[in-house]
Amino acid sequence: MQTDLVAALDIGGTKIAGALVDGHGRILVRAQRPTPAREDGDTVMRAVEEVLAELTATPQWSAVTVIGIGSAGPVDASTGTVSPVNVPGWRAFPLVERVRAVTGGLPVELIGDGVAITAAEHWQGAARGHDNALCMVVSTGVGGGLVLGGRLHAGPTGNAGHIGHICVDLDGDPCPCGSRGCVEGIASGPNIARRALAGGWRPGPDGDTSAAAVAAAARAGDPVAVASFERAAQALAAGIAATATLVEIDIAVVGGGVGKAGEVLFAPLRTALKSYATLSFVRGLTVVPAEMGTDAGLVGAAAAALARRGSASGAGVG
Fold this sequence. Notes:
Layout: E1 5-11, E2 15-21, E3 27-34, H1 41-56, E4 64-71, E5 75-76, E6 81-82, H2 95-102, E7 108-112, H3 113-124, E8 133-138, E9 142-148, E10 151-153, H4 183-187, H5 189-198, H6 211-219, H7 223-247, E11 251-255, H8 256-259, H9 263-276, E12 286-289, H10 296-309
Parallel strand pairs: 1-4, 4-7, 8-11, 11-12
Antiparallel strand pairs: 1-2, 2-3, 5-6, 8-9, 9-10
Helix pairs in contact: 1-2, 3-10, 5-6, 5-7, 6-7, 7-9
């Protein structure tokens, strides 16, 4: 019989993905549904139940003893509830209770999606071998998670390491979170594009105004596009350096759609980091691209579930 087999869910505003994952991080079975993000909470839950139904119908399901969930947040692992910003029908939604109800009462480990991706990068990806790391997702929003002392540090509610809402500009624009001048308000994909457009950058004939289009323009030397990425890199550097100074990480891993921009982002990020990470114990901090890709959420949710069960040898989470 298959051992160390866990079920994993990766829940976001676009898709609900599920998988059966073994103790080496290999995905054996997959299922997926679009997220009905604009529908009521029960409709969203039905999509989750359909994904779980596919998984429970497989022969391998009998070996599953725990379920890991990485969800868009905020999440509250202490109550088993989720309130994803991009799924309005779920506010303090009892996701853990509902998942247990349709899976025969199996134990469930709930963490935020940024924390899940951190678990994956530490177990299988760019942060492997590092005991103290920050992993970030820079996309439509900016999220993240921490590994401290060789173990995933999710915090009491499962949200620790949410670097997107560190303030890096005291007089900056108001953020939807209620604060102002947050990393996310400067470095997220939509805000990179917004700043470029406000500065006079214009898209090509295809009309693409995404951050990826701005990145392409920056690679071609457009000064406004370059400046928008440099500003994003400065905000990320300030947030990374603040985190490193506080908890002594030695590596920061940057993934997500914006992270795929390559040296357009990473070159100014490394330069800016030298200006912010100045104390002796953070000068050796390195910044690298993420490695895990689109499966990171599933693999990370599985890693957290394995750690909960106490059998995640090599997963480095807990």
